[in-house]
Amino acid sequence: MTGLDHLCALLAVGAACAGAGLVLPALETSIAATVLLLGALVACAPGLQRRLPPQVAIVVVGGCAFLHGLAHGRELAGMASGAGFLVASALLMLAGALPGERVRRMAGAAIGAAGLYLLAGVA
To answer: Three-state SS for 6?
Structure first.
């Protein structure tokens, strides 16, 4: 088990909650913060993996997945592209399994920088 099925389910739950009318304040800012957080966690993964309890990692990643699902669910309301959304999300998660610690850390740093860019309100 890779956990990919569970993450896709969290994304789908977030999208379903959006479809049911759930609205959270400052969702876009929260999304940008999750991009920064997850990028930083990936960039620092070797040291953090030894210190971060798995339960904390599950809550952080699950919460981020839910928020992203909620945001995408709002954007996709009334569209027939939900399957494409889930497939694209799954492919992005699989990309996190890139070989090579250095490549993963560099990708994490780039993702974290994108989060800073989004939080700055530039995009």
So the answer is: helix
Q: Residue 61: which H helix or E strand, with range?
A: helix 54-75
Distance in angstroms (rounded) separating the CA atoms of residues 84 and 66: 17
Return the residue matching tokens 């040291």: 47
Burial of 2 (0-12, 13-18, 19+ CB in 10 A): exposed
Please state the pTM of the whole predicted model: 0.75
Q: How many CB atoms lie within 10 A of CB 83?
A: 8
pLDDT tens-place string over residues 63-92? 988 998 888 888 776 666 667 766 776 776
Opening angle at CA 60, ends 76 and 14, nearest 5: 20
What pLDDT, in 10s, does the model give residues 5-39?
Answer: 666 677 788 888 888 899 999 999 999 999 899 88
